[in-house]
Structures are given as structure tokens and as C-alpha cells.
């Protein structure tokens, strides 16, 4: 997505097969993307910072200590002025979805109640191949400004409407519902 907007992009996943699929897709689209096999709960160990982090379908996998570790990793990897966008399963979605934790607005706010700002939590959908209604989701925007907005450093701006349009596209069609969680 970010590469499609002309930005330097890094894709992180723990599963080699997920990275292969993403790599094939980037190649087919002629996008230059760096892919890393890495645990998102340990993003800080990369020793890098990211102006924008896009999370489609990861946050809702974690709860308890894993969620806290992921949020701490985001805090380390997204500097003041950076942004975090998350698209995750909502508690509005009916039925069971394996390892996914359906998120309430309250628990999203609680997870990020660390002095950093949650700018918006909006009802949204994740498109999937097996159901034209898609999955009921939350689209969350978090701004890592710790002081006044947009002062600390020149983060590469991502045009918000374009980003939202890309997020709404959801994952590419896959044969089995809802996803394969890979070989990790
Ligand atoms: C629901 S899929 C979403 C994949 C992709 N973002 C998409 O929208 O198609 C969740 C992905 O999170 C990856 N994952 C799970 N735990 C992870 C972790 N600790 N660190 C990095 N990736 C992880 C899984 O391997 C899987 O590819």
C-alpha cells in the first residue's frame, strides 16, 4: 500500500509464506518493498523508526501480554510526529473467527491509553472473498505526537483519503476463510 503511494515501504510478518505472497504481489505490481521476517511485538529491536505504521489484521490477534508488548513496540518504532493506522475486527461482527479477538471501542482506547493520542476510531469493513458484506471492523488512527501536533519532526505525510481507500480494499481474494496464519 505504502509503496503504491510512492513511499519507502517495509513489510513485516512472522510467517515466511505470508512474506512470499506479499513479495509476489509487490513484484507483480512493480513495487519496491523491503520485507522482513520479524516479530511485530519486537519492532523496537530493529533499531529503526517508521513515519507511518499500517496494521491490517494484526492488532486483533493479540491480547493480554502480547497486546501490551505490541503497543510498547509501536511506541518504540513510531516517533513523535508518526502515525499508526489499524484495521481490526469489530465486536459488531457476528460469529466465531478463530484466533481473532473482536475489538470493542473501549478496549482499543484502553490499549493505547499511554499518553499517546487516539485520533479516531471509526466503524469500517474488511473486504473478504467469501462474504460480500465483508467483516465488520474498526479503522483506528493513532497519532504519536506527544506534544503539539506536527511540530516535532517532518513525518512523510500519507494522504489520508488515499490511505483509507487502500485500507478499505482489504486483502486480496484467498481460497479459504478467513486467512491462513502461516507457519510460525
Ligand atoms: C489476518 S493476517 C493479515 C495479513 C495482511 N496484513 C492482510 O491484510 O492480508 C495476520 C498476519 O499477521 C501475522 N502475524 C501474526 N503474529 C505476528 C507477529 N507476532 N509478528 C508479525 N506478524 C505476525 C500472520 O503471520 C499473518 O500473516
* Gyration radius from CA atoms, angstroms: 16 Å
Please tally the β strands and state the result.
Answer: 6
Largest β sheet strand count, sense and barrel closure:
4 strands, mixed
CATH superfamily of the largest domain: Vaccinia Virus protein VP39
Helix-strand sequence: EHEEHEHEEH
Oligomer: single chain
State the helical fraction.
Answer: 10-25%
Q: Under CATH, the topology of the largest domain is which?
A: Rossmann fold
Unreliable stretches covering 5 or more consecutive residues: 147-158, 170-184
Number of helices in the DSSP assignment: 4
Structural shape: globular
Question: Per CATH, which architecture of the largest domain?
Answer: 3-Layer(aba) Sandwich
What is the SS-derived class?
alpha/beta
Strand order of the largest sheet: 3-4-6-5
List of distinct ligands in this structure: S-adenosylmethionine
CATH class label of the largest domain: Alpha Beta
End-to-end separation: 24 Å
The average pLDDT score comes to 82
Percent of sequence in beta strands: 15-25%
Biased composition (Low complexity): 155-169
InterPro entries: Methyltransf_25, SAM-dependent_MTases_sf
Domain Methyltransferase: 6-82
Protein name: Methyltransferase domain-containing protein
Amino acid at each position: 500500500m505504502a509503496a503504491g503511494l510512492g513511499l519507502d515501504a517495509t513489510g513485516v510478518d512472522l510467517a515466511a509464506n505470508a512474506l512470499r505472497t506479499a513479495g509476489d504481489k509487490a513484484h507483480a505490481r512493480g513495487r519496491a518493498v523491503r520485507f522482513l521476517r520479524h516479530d511485530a511485538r519486537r519492532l523496537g529491536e530493529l533499531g529503526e523508526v517508521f513515519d507511518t505504521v499500517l496494521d491490517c489484521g494484526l492488532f486483533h490477534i493479540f491480547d493480554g501480554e502480547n497486546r501490551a508488548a505490541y503497543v510498547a513496540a509501536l511506541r518504540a518504532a513510531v516517533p513523535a510526529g508518526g502515525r499508526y493506522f489499524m484495521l481490526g475486527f469489530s465486536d459488531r461482527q457476528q460469529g466465531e473467527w478463530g484466533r481473532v479477538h473482536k475489538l470493542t471501542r473501549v478496549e482499543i482506547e484502553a490499549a493505547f491509553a499511554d499518553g499517546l493520542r487516539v485520533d479516531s476510531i471509526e466503524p469500517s469493513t474488511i473486504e473478504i472473498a467469501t462474504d460480500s458484506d465483508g467483516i465488520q471492523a474498526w479503522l483506528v488512527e493513532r497519532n504519536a505526537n506527544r506534544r503539539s501536533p506536527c511540530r516535532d519532526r517532518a513525518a512523510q505525510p500519507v494522504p489520508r483519503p488515499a490511505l483509507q481507500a487502500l485500507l478499505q480494499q482489504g486483502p486480496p481474494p484467498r481460497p479459504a476463510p478467513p486467512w491462513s496464519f502461516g507457519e510460525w
